[in-house]
Amino acid sequence: MTNYLRLLGTALLLSAAACHASQDAAKPAAARPAAAAPAAAAAPATAPSSATPALPRYTQSAAKSSLKFTFEQAGGATSGAFKKFNTVLLYDEKNLAASSLNVRIEIASIDTQEQERDGMLKDADLFNVAKFPAATFVASSLAKRADGGLEAVGKLTIRDITHNLRLPLTLKPTTDGLELSGKTAIKRLDYGVGQGEWKATDSVGDEVKIEYTVSLARSRS
Fold first, then answer.
1. Dihedral, CA atoms, 154, 158, 163, 169, nearest 10 degrees?
2. Which of 92, 110, 136, 153 sits in a 20 to 30 Å window from 193, CA-based?
3. 90: Cβ–Cβ under 8 A, 6 or more apart, which residues?
4. Tell me: the pLDDT tens digits for 46-74?
5. Are 168 and 148 in contact (CB under 8 A)?
6. H helices of 27-111, where?
7. 28: Cβ–Cβ under 8 A, 6 or more apart, which residues?
């Protein structure tokens, strides 16, 4: 009887253990916490472009351009011209501050319709072409004048002497670009054009009037 009870107890214990194991197996496995999805790689920020768009560029058509001057000699007006000069204009009417004008004049191309006078003007006491072959006007901006016109704000250099000059401009559209024109006046002695006896103004006046008409073609490059 005692052995029978022991066997019955053992059987009940085994049965309970099996039932418990069956219940544990039926339970769903605890869900593991999902791994955090890797953060999407941030797209590189696009830096704002700092490049300023290039302004329209205009270059001179020599055949249709003129640079004339007039001065007083021996009580009368004497006229002449420079036959060789080059002009480059960067121009945007909506961005005058960034517009520019660059002019180079070959002094040896001076022509007053009198060979002897041309030679005299090229000598050391006047333009001194051997030492100073070119005159330049360089303007780093354009501006509106009080009368509504334009002017190039720059510097004129003759005989290596430089002075500020506000050059009046009129710009008119043409079939292939622009026409630039205007008038101004300078003092020749301000630029050293007149050494020795040529500093006197009783024979040759100090004021020189300048008139320019320049045909400019827009560059396609």
1. -40
2. 153
3. 55, 56, 57, 58, 98, 99, 100, 101
4. 554 455 679 999 999 988 899 999 999 98
5. no
6. none
7. none
